[in-house]
């Protein structure tokens, strides 16, 4: 067994060069002599990568379908995705391999199957009786383009209309074409000289299955008699048709037209419409025709027993309603309701009580698929209120600019966020239950709380409960409400650091234990929030302005070459100057007329009412310096135990004590080095008493990295408006070399210098040039003293070097366990403490869940540092590099996280070349290396994140979050956790035809379609017309599809009926696919047989 494990690990080394492996191995050997060996439990068999669930609104939707018995909704998209929705919490995502747009979806009602028609002229049959639906059959049309499909209820024959105006018929059991074809030239009048256009509608008469209504785009409608193979009636109109719908009695139908009119036709009066309606047309006097309107794209005609029918339509507004939002119109009797939508309507469906088209429909709701939303309208209540949508479809309400994922949070956090978020809910929703209620939930095998935070372009943050592969919004925070809104464009002199979305969130730093939250926005602003359950009114918003400026005198490259001095912005003003203020500054220009000391946004100076939830503790803004705008913030960290927040950009670093509301540190990046700067850059204004004490470059300095060795990262441009975090590892120009941005910040309690005997609070700073610097924090005692005495901050002189920009840092104790940053436990700060509590808080030490606190002084810690190119583990306090791993030579790491998994920890990395990798800690052994997806756009780079317990996510489209797991255990449990889409449900009884209708005719006429379309009657279709492709659904899926709720006897009879037809297909099918079709056919006929053999008096 041991040999096998070693081989698996060796397999994982493929992405690492042999030289790197050798150096790593030799270092590990030396380390073994120097350091105590840590037993690592994670092996490569603990890792497996797979997608789990996709949340959010289907991006670019294009088709909609509903199963009225199973109560399942299906949405298809322009990228070939399929999303299925049941009861809240039951969702499923599938993808057509071709990626072609879905043009239409048709459920096999109550059969657990779905047909999709794609823009590449393929039809696919999906089996929904398994937790992960799969395609059973596909049919590719070679000579004709599919435009419309229709599958009658309880039929196995699918009508397929084409662009040429022909109709082909597909057997959905075997997915083969019938020889029966309706040709366009047979359907239209022989005297007609022009082609009638593509098929836009097909449906059978609700009362007579033998009569097929065919709608052509040009305005011609034909009632086709399937038995006699000729047209009974032809209805011609001079306006193009968009859709057609039947009255349930089969005596009338309605058409919607391109001029905004509806025509209602009596079946037996083809000469002219019975009625013409222009729902939104202005009625002119003198009996003239109303003015033409926009096309009515779809109409539905639904009847009720107790009242007038409903005519529901989309589009049709008059042309003079410029700027009016898209509308859905509901006409019921004499009343017409026009319901405005936020986005354009893609499709809509009316949900009815019965699946039978020949019964009173009794509509109860309308589901409207919009371009960016899904709306359900309650037809039964006055005013047509909408249902409250329980699905997490509002991720994109404002574009997502960043996100963070936290697994294994404190258990009281989700209830706390839910209770404050519950007050934000809108009122006025329908009081009924959400009508899409099919499927069953999966088993909950994961019990730990998970939270996702999304930051948005409008400055809002959303907190989501993501526990157990579900997603539900908990709480929304609007950060923009602290700023004055500019009323017009001329009133926005300061926001020109970005053209639009000045409040957009760039970075989120959150401490789940203390509930302290800190955000950095695109206008170089930082806001710190505390969580409170009490409502407060803040009279004056606490505010600081920081002048973070970058100036150099002259530059020398590390190898000693002289270079010309840099042009420097400004006029030599002191970069140390800080403007702490509680009101916005009024100084807007310097002596030479340049904008100076002005922040980009204006903080409100009126009292601010703050609801329970996150409340502002402090607003920090970077200001303009002598006409130079502040640079966007590239890194951020907050620590509740120390009461500090720190942030950096390409100019330097600033640290703020948010308890005392003071700036503690404001340095250019070069000044952090002191005399140890490898690039020998000199600040123009030398600091007094700021030179750091301590040694020069430490032992593990590998020398400087030559710029050309580095791979250019697409995130290098700091001013890029795509909210990228600046991690410039490409430094070809002197300016870039000197503009060293702060890329990583980490508060911790560790050894700051080589000769330290005990750990102390400090801040580790990582830069885009691969340098790690350590700043010592001298904190006053707790309680009242913390608010009175200053925090003393000083650089330690410790410098470590890696290749590429620093991304992440973490610390391990002697046993190899993670040492989390110290934190204060959360308490309600808006309620005054009693005396006992005050005494406790004086004595209270910051919580550091570190096993090292009880260790002897001589024991060491390990720093784990991950950059764009490599990872190192450094022993502290000795500062020896004991393990090193070159993660990638040709690409760069976009995201690296140190995470816990299976009671151990590892480093997880996502590379720009699409690889996801994990490494053991502390030895950095490769455990997983899988090619997952290439970096196709900045959205993935901006949102990808790993968290504990093998979870990860990224924004897969502007509206959807894709979650994945790299844990073997989660992959194995996933099948149980997924919900069931199909549940056995009895099909409702067919409508009672009544005694006299049954005796004298007039009821629904059935048709033996098998007799008409089967091979014996219709012959075989041309082989070149369409090609059958067996699906990857597999035997297991088909067995599931065949196990319905019908008796064995009916199944045996059905097998006998179908045997002849199946034998003919043996030539072109493998045994497996034969079994597939056979099994599925048994199920597809089960309910039809139930009613087919009953006489009228048995109902």
TrEMBL record:
> Signal sequence: where?
none
Question: What are the GO cellular component annotations?
Answer: plasma membrane; SNARE complex
Domain named V-SNARE coiled-coil homology: which ranges?
1034-1094
> Bias category Low complexity: which stretches?
582-591
Q: What segment(s) does the record annotate as region Disordered?
A: 557-596, 675-735, 821-855
Please provide the record's keywords in A-Z order.
Cell membrane, Coiled coil, Cytoplasm, Exocytosis, Membrane, Phosphoprotein, Protein transport, Repeat, Transport, WD repeat
Gene Ontology biological-process entries: exocytosis; Golgi to plasma membrane transport; protein transport
Superkingdom, natural source: Eukaryota
List the GO molecular function terms: GTPase activator activity; myosin II binding; syntaxin binding
Q: Which residues form a coiled coil?
A: none
The protein's matches in Gene3D superfamilies, at most eight in alphabetical order, are given as: 1.20.5.110, YVTN repeat-like/Quinoprotein amine dehydrogenase
Topological category with respect to the lipid bilayer: Peripheral membrane protein
- UniProt feature, compositional bias: Polar residues: 570-580
Location comes to: Cell membrane; Cytoplasm
For this protein, the record's InterPro entries field holds:
Lethal2_giant, Lgl_C_dom, LLGL2, V_SNARE_CC, WD40/YVTN_repeat-like_dom_sf, WD40_repeat_dom_sf, WD40_rpt
**Compositional bias annotation for Basic and acidic residues:** 707-722, 824-840
Q: Keyword Cytoplasm, does the record have it? A: yes
Q: What family does this chain come from, according to its entry?
A: Belongs to the WD repeat L(2)GL family.
Supply the PANTHER family for this chain.
LETHAL 2 GIANT LARVAE PROTEIN, SYNTAXIN-BINDING PROTEIN 5
Write the protein's name: Syntaxin-binding protein 5
Which species does the entry assign this protein to? Melopsittacus undulatus
